[in-house]
Design goal:
about 160 residues, alpha+beta, two-stranded antiparallel sheet, 3 helices, globular
C-alpha cells in the first residue's frame, strides 16, 4: 500500500493505484450532499434512524444554505437546506425534490483543479474558487460534464479523512 501526505493528512492508496492523469490533484470523495427541505428533521432521520454521527452545522449565506455534516464512519454526508427562496438548492428542491444534490471531490488545490477540468474540455459552473462551508475553497463542475451529477471540487476545511 502506498501513501501521499496532503495538508498534514496521510492518504493511503491501494497498491498500484495512482492519481488520475487528467486530475492528478483529486484525493478522493470529500462528501456526498443531500438536499433536504427541513434540516432538523433530516438530521434526526440520518442520526436516529440510520445511526450517523452529527458533525458541525453551519450557515453559508453566500450560497443561500445551511448545512449539517453527518458521519458514517469515515464517510461524510452533508445535508443541505435552503435558507431563502432564491437559493440554488431551493430551485433544485422545487424541480427534483429532496435527494442527492452533489458529489464532492477532495482536491489538493482548487484553482489547479479548475484549470485541469477546463483543460479537459469539461463545462464548469465556477471559473474561480469561492468560499464554502467549514473553511473550504470550492468550485462546481456542471452536471453535463459528469453524467448528470453536479460535482464539487473541495480544498481544505475539515480535511479529507473523517475528523472522528
Amino acid at each position: 500500500m502506498g501513501s501521499v501526505v496532503v495538508r498534514g493528512w496521510t492518504i493511503l492508496l491501494p497498491e498500484g493505484q495512482m492519481a488520475s492523469p487528467i486530475m492528478p490533484n483529486i484525493l478522493g470523495v470529500d462528501h456526498i450532499a443531500i438536499a433536504v427541505e427541513d434540516l432538523d428533521v433530516a438530521t434526526r432521520q440520518w442520526a436516529d434512524q440510520l445511526g450517523l454521527r452529527e458533525g458541525a452545522r453551519e450557515m453559508v449565506p453566500e450560497q443561500g444554505v445551511e448545512v449539517q455534516m453527518m458521519y458514517a464512519g469515515a464517510t461524510r454526508i452533508e445535508l443541505v437546506c435552503p435558507i431563502h427562496s432564491t437559493s440554488p438548492v431551493r430551485a433544485f428542491l422545487d424541480k427534483r425534490g429532496p435527494g442527492l444534490h452533489h458529489v464532492a471531490l477532495a482536491v489538493e488545490d482548487c484553482a489547479a483543479a479548475i484549470v485541469e477540468v477546463k483543460n479537459s474540455g469539461a463545462r464548469l459552473i465556477d471559473e474561480q474558487p469561492r468560499g464554502g462551508a467549514h473553511g473550504t475553497r470550492i468550485a462546481f463542475v456542471h452536471p453535463a460534464a459528469s453524467g448528470g451529477v453536479l460535482t464539487e471540487l473541495v480544498e481544505g476545511g475539515e480535511g479529507f479523512p473523517s475528523d472522528s
